Amino acid sequence: GFLIPYFIMLIVEGMPLLYLELAVGQRMRQGSIGAWKIISPYLCGVGVASVVVSFFLSMYYNVINAWAFWYLFHSFQDPLPWATCPLNSNRTGYEEECEKTSSTQYFWYRQTLNISPSLEVSGAVQWEQALCLTLAWLVVYLCILRGTESTGKLEQLSNPKTWISAATQIFFSLGLGFGSLIAFASYNEPSNNCERHAIIVSLINSATSIFASIVTFSIYGFKATFNYESCINKVILLLLNAFDLEEGSLTADNLNEMKDYLMATHPQEYAQLLPQLKNCSLEAELDTAVQGTGLAFIVYSEAIKNMEVSQLYSVLYFVMLLMLGIGSMLGNTAAILTPLTDSKVIATRFPKEVISGVVCFINCIIGLIFTMEAGNYWFDIFNDYAATLSLLLIVLVETIAVCYIYGLRRFEKDLHTMIGRKLNWYWKVMWAFASPLLIISLFIFYLTDYILTGTLQYQAWDGTQGQLVTKDYPGYALAVIGLLVASSTMCIPLGALVTFVRKRLKRESVSTVA
Amino acid sequence: MLQVLLLTFSVVTVARAELCKPDAQNAFKVRLSIKTALGDNAYAWDANEEYLFKAMVAFTMRRYSSKTTTQISNVLLCNVTDRVSFWFVVTDSSKNTTVPGSEVEAAIRMNRNRINNAFLLSDKTLQFLKISSTLAPPVEPSTPVWLIVFGVVLCLIVAAIVFLVVAGIQQRKKKNKESTERENLEEKGEVTITIENGIPCETLDLKAGHINGVFSADDERFTSL
């Protein structure tokens, strides 16, 4: 059901917008701020907005890499630390919190995050996570020093609203609106065939996304089946022990009949036992939703711990996650660094290494917020609100700017000189009509959805119950959310206003001179 | 005579039955899960296995209290079910009272491993219901493993960064030296460099310059002299 909107979005939005951004970068030979300034001086705000969004993204995204490093380093143990619960203080049983929930969830919430019960309780910085975050930033810095030619990809975890999630999936996985594509393309040769690249990149990206989703769902199914069978076995054991039946007399097949039989023959004892007998259902297992990034770490680690040679699969999986994550980080940091290195003011005074180092260092320090006990809640705030709305707006302004302000014919001529071929009518129709209309409708849909749901809520981990509970955001968190969205979207009108005022002042000074 | 014997025998049996029954004082329930533990190699629970169990408990009591008086007949089993589960109790030498539960518990805890191995079972498959087993803590090395791996990776990354930064600085120094050398040579008039509007032509190849295709010197278009 998700694939249809996904493909439609890919054809209508993904490929055209990818092509647009690559072409703009390649033609203007500048990062996002410079490129948009060339198209129209009033649009310098778009580039700045892209940089701001990339900055927010790079602040919080590297925490995922830190977690991946943490799991990777812990994969070199036998048994895997998330496979069994730790013992309690007098070694008579397992930790209470771990008993209530599964060992993988306990490892994630308690031993990795050491999460606090709510956003207000900040807690201290976890030094282990801080170390992993520092390492992640060092790796990113190393890769920036070497430079890179590959496009960054970002996997956004899907959102129940199918159409929005299809669009955002395309946006995020292709990296539209971040300015990273423009930055990368500006290093291309002018004669580079960016049309072919755009099509190839978006198709390959979709193919890998679909492949990844097949793998994800099969692992999800494996986990659900395994948990279902464990649940059934627990019920069988409970009944065998309570009624002293012979081993093997209760199986998964005859469980229901035997339950009825026991209820008829020993009603009292059965009634006593009833609260402990869980109704195991495969559907319920498949429905268990895990919030946000926890999906990648809880579901997969649970599936991996049940496989043979789990250490090998664990290492492979987290190395893959790291490569994806570092690749995305490179895209984001390139989007921030290219405008900085393009600007003459900064580039002449400091060498490239120093600028990259300073940016990485600042991001690392800010990222320490996400290593605190309440850090995961702040992470979810950034994950949900920092990029989504702003990106839609940025991409919309980009399309309209290139088509109507710069002029579609002028752009067509530029592309003709770069590629040597006339522009296909398909791209023209997409850029001029279909993509902007679709983005506007998505935008309206998003806004109305935000307004209708009322106060924003988040999922907090309750250690005493061993599950997630819904809580309301406190006032200052709502303020931060508003600031996140406003700071990137306001750049566009502000940029236009500043340019307008500057031009006015210049015209006045010229006229007074004359 | 025979009647008296029969009477005492029945009294003793009744008395012994009194001692061992579910939830009796100092009695413990045992539960075995042989099929779960051994699968196809599972043995059937019969009188011989019960005899072995009695022998193991007697051995345990002897080992614990160092008294050599506990006999196999001191251990009473009752209420054996299909599960397999049963109750047992240890009587003292007079066979009229039972040994205190705390002693039995301590003895079994001390020798749990031996009992498990005699039946090819483990703590989970041979359960003494009131006696909780101390779980073995996982083996923890003095330095956590993850710190070691972290240290290795960190050293590699830092070494690579330092190497790249130093290489970059050296390259820049070499370039500066070359350009100053060339300027010195220029002043001496020994090397002519093509200059256009005061900018050497090499720098025009960077991003900032535009190369006008019309004026690129194409020797083939001009007739050779």
Descriptive notes:
Chain A: It holds the Pfam family SNF. Chain A: Its main location: membrane. Chain A: It is a multi-pass membrane protein. Chain A: This is Solute carrier family 6 member 20. Chain A: Keywords: Membrane, Metal-binding, Sodium, Transmembrane, Transmembrane helix, Transport. The complex is a heterodimer of chains A (514) and B (225). Chain A is an all-alpha fold. In chain A, 71% of the residues lie in helices and 2% in strands. In chain A, strands 1-2 form a two-stranded antiparallel sheet. In chain A, a hairpin with a 4-residue loop joins β1 and β2. The longest helix of chain A has 50 residues. The radius of gyration of chain A is 27 Å and the shape is elongated. About 3% of the residues of chain A have low confidence. In chain B, the strands form 2 sheets. Chain B has a 4-stranded antiparallel β-sheet with strand order 2-3-1-4, with helices on both faces. Chain B starts with a helix and ends in a 25-residue tail after the last strand. With 225 residues, chain B is an alpha+beta fold. The longest helix of chain B is centred in the C-terminal third of the chain and has 44 residues. The model of chain B has no long low-confidence stretch (mean pLDDT 79). Classes of the chains: A mainly alpha (514), B alpha+beta (225). At the A-B interface, α3 and α6 of A face α2 and α6 of B.
Mean pLDDT of chain B: 79
State the end-to-end distance of chain B: 151 Å
Biggest interface reads:
A-B, 35 and 31 residues
Query: In terms of per-residue confidence, which ranges of chain A show pLDDT below 50 for 5 or more consecutive residues?
Result: 148-164
Return the average pLDDT of chain A rounded to an integer: 79
Write down how many β-strands of chain B occur, each being a DSSP E stretch of 2 or more residues: 6
Q: How much β-strand is present in the residues of chain A?
A: under 5%
Largest sheet geometry of chain B: 4 strands, antiparallel
Approximate helicity band of chain B:
40-55%
Tell me the series of helices and strands of chain B, N- to C-terminal: HEHHEEHHEHEE
Uncertain spans of chain B, ≥5 residues at pLDDT below 50? none
Q: How much helix is in the residues of chain A?
A: over 70%
Determine Rg of chain A (CA atoms, Å). Answer: 27 Å
Tally of contiguous helical segments of chain A: 22
- Integer-rounded radius of gyration of chain B: 46 Å
Total number of helical segments of chain B?
6
For the largest beta-sheet of chain A, the strand count, sense and barrel status come to: 2 strands, antiparallel
Strand order of the largest sheet of chain B: 2-3-1-4
Let me know the number of strands of chain A.
2
